[in-house]
Amino acid sequence: MRIEDYQHWARRAVDWTADYLRGLRARPVRPDIAPGSVAARLPAAPPEEPEPLETIFADFEAIVPDAMTHWQHPRFFAYFPANAHRASMLAEHLVAGMAAQCMLWQTSPAATEIEGRMVEWLAAALGLPRGWSGLIQDSASTATLCAILTMRERALDWAGNRQGLSGAPRLRIYASAQNHSSVDKACWIAGIGQENLVRIPTRPDFGMDPAALERAIAADLAAGHLPAGVVAVTGGTAIGACDPVAEIAAVARRHGLYLHLDAAWAGAAMICPEFRPLWAGVEEVDSLVVNPHKWLGANFDCSVQFLKDPAAQIRTLALRPDYLQTLGRSEIVNYSEWTVPLGRRFRALKLWFLLRAEGLSGLRRMIRDHVRWARMARDLIAADPAFEIATEPTLALFTFRLRAGDAATRALIEAVNAGGRAFLTQTMHEGRFVIRMTVGTIDCTEADVRAACDAIIAAARAPG
What class is the 20-98+358-464 domain? Predict the structure, then answer.
């Protein structure tokens, strides 16, 4: 493709994207299609000869949009948001054009240094202590894996990477049932094993019970096991549970354990000072993850891991063969040494564009609106006697169910999602099937939230 052709089709792509975003409200949030229907429209083999861009673009328009779940739809209330602010989208286009591999400072000086400054900006915006550092990961799952690998090496006095785990003491990681499944997977990948992830009971507010944590650690020490670390959560995925961070940190300190805090979704709200009591004690954790690609508006992927002191993680993960040396530069930062992958994207540019285009004031206004509208939605649904609120709102997330039971609640969410006016997801809570509703897309309005509540109540009242 000639550069002139690229210019033409890039403009066409931007025009298409703008029209797509303008028209999202008219689309169903989730497509009503059968599995395999998209693949059936694609040839079984690649073309031998080049095809014109006109044909390729026409096929895109005919096949792709109507077969997508529209994550930027203003009535997307499922999972957590994965927002794409327009300024972030522009930055991603520039990143694609430069196509840099940002594994080292020398392969990407601007990318490396902007990343460091963006971590500092976001730390200040969240009210974190001065002096913390960190990096931009692809997802919270990778940040959590890095933290658990660091827990492993630290507990084994840095011998695990050299010697493996054969013959090592039985390592133990502690978390509550409200933690994300990425903690389980990190224990698998780190060689610690599912059976050594100890699930700590929760208190009535569904936050981890620090006394139960203390007892579990004592029991493991008595059994000859080796406690390695604790993973706490602020804003758990299922119902938004928040652990008592300060109390858990006190237990971790007494036993010399590394503490990681998963605030992937809820951490974004901490740019608003009034929400910071939800993670009181955050200054005591060793590692913290917040996803700007959820609630702040940075395109996926953009997950920031903050570190009180990066030395332990770098010692765990840094590997510098001769061919990755930067000759004549021994004191530079190479973020690939702080994480698992060697290859890295220029993720910091979209955060730089986003924070400047919106300012903290604009982002705070958006988050406060979402929290207010979620509480409004809770009240609208609770006012109908057919419903009960299963868990009260944590920030912009709450859960509800039909009093008629699990089967009726399951049928309700299927009807709402099939109708296309809103998209919700579900979870199990205290043995019951409940519906999650989380408000968070950039273009969502109060009217969209009211429309979703109308659709939910209408579906519950529909005959059959």
Answer: alpha beta
